[in-house]
Known about the structure:
Blueprint: H1 3-22, H2 25-65
Helix pairs in contact: 1-2
Amino acid sequence: MGDESAMDKVKGKAKEMAGKATGDDRMKSEGKTDRAKGKAKGAMDEAKENAQGMRDSLKDKGDRRT
């Protein structure tokens, strides 16, 4: 998980809790949005890593044939 995605999750959780504590529905919603953004960034980072791993493993298989 990238630092940026983790920061979005933490920031979102803090906003959401602050919104709940103060009764500010808008802040609560912004917090949920920030958390979702963090999760999406994390998923994209993971997908990139998986794709890189697949590419590397396929490249290695190609090297063995020659």
